[in-house]
Design a protein that fits this description.
Strand content: under 5%
Distance between the termini: 49 Å
Shape: flat
Radius of gyration: 22 Å
Helix content: over 70%
Mean pLDDT: 78
Order of helices and strands: HHHHHHH
Number of helices: 7
Largest sheet: none
Structural class: mainly alpha
Amino acid sequence: IIITGRYALLIAISIIYGILFVAIHLYYVYNYISWSTVIWILMGISVLKFFILLSAIKNDLFTDKKEIISEHSFDLNAIKRLWLHIGFNDVFQSTVRWLDKLIITFILSKELAAVYVNATYEIPVFTLVTSAVYSASLIKLNKLSGNQRDILALLRSTSSLLGIFTFSSLCYFYFFAEEF
């Protein structure tokens, strides 16, 4: 939507979604609806928002528009690849963020699992470093869009960089950990 310059549509959809989001939660707070109903309504609104945005950009997304490319001087296929990678990354990060909590619920009792889920928190340094390395490597990967050898070299170097950082950080936390 931003690429095609439809800012008014994007702003309108975002404002309407925000108002509906707050209204649904207010209905929940004042006990008009249950939490499961809130979840179902939010999923329905999110799916509706997705299809509205998809219908707004379907012509630009599924066909190569030469006037858009010449107007903004970028490769639309490269942008599609970039957003596909970003989408996979977001899904992967969300899955990994909650995977340990899901596994713990199968292993521990309900009480201990509740303590684990509510008492654990993410260390933001890891998220910041991995997202920074990922963003930089995505930009580089998008420029290497056909050279398999360079892509593998990039993936190896970013993986080793993240591995060195993660391993050294976890060793530090292991040796200097104290219970409180």
